[in-house]
């Protein structure tokens, strides 16, 4: 992997991706943050050596470099998922690339279903901890110790200082920001009523199909990371409605301006 990382990083540096300070991963329905970036360079994933290609139709698939809130940022507009057939190493490859490019902080967003019945769709949740239900680890491969310590502490996977700053920013902006535990499943199918009950019993406040592998690798790289879920539906097993992808995307889109404000406010403080 080290040879592939070097080739990818050299390609991006030659294109002008120089010394970004913050990395951002944008999830489902959350791509409009880029409209607030003073973009210098954008490259489609399929043009980047050794990069996976986003196959989900509502993910853009662009690597973007520019300035946001006075900081140089590198942004993934569209991420990769286990359910697309990629390995966990493929999914997290861009995190390693962003770290090699020089980022000092990583911000992640996703769309998730609310398990906690006091949480409402259209609101935001700051991830305080997570449960990995994807059945594997992005660190479980031969040679991982050449890229960092094999055994990674996960007692506090989300950076406490950035999380505190997010909560302060939300209060300042008058934005509701729940705190909770995010469970990451494989997908792409949605959960059954029994599975939603199970997730609630084991302590999950929200469920989605991403983020955890990226956070694990960020911790492997000793890269401070913070993540926010946009709650796009309410997963009440006793009143469960059929899944509607258009409604999910619409809910994420309506919540997006608040996420943009939060990210912008936080980045000012980094």
UniProtKB/TrEMBL annotation:
Residues 22-267 form the Nucleoside phosphorylase domain. InterPro entries: Nucleoside_phosphorylase_d, Nucleoside_phosphorylase_sf, Pur_Nuc_Pase_Ino/Guo-sp, Purine_phosphorylase. It is an enzyme of class 2 (transferase). Pathway: Purine metabolism; purine nucleoside salvage. GO terms for molecular function: purine-nucleoside phosphorylase activity. The keyword Iron-sulfur does not apply. It comes from the Bacteria. One of its GO terms (biological process) is nucleoside metabolic process. Pfam families: PNP_UDP_1 (PF01048). One of its GO terms (cellular component) is cytoplasm. Its EC number is 2.4.2.1. Keywords: Glycosyltransferase, Transferase. The purine nucleoside phosphorylases catalyze the phosphorolytic breakdown of the N-glycosidic bond in the beta-(deoxy)ribonucleoside molecules, with the formation of the corresponding free purine bases and pentose-1-phosphate. NCBIfam families: PNPH, PNPH-PUNA-XAPA, PRK08202.1. Belongs to the PNP/MTAP phosphorylase family. This is Purine nucleoside phosphorylase. It comes from Psychroflexus torquis (strain ATCC 700755 / CIP 106069 / ACAM 623).
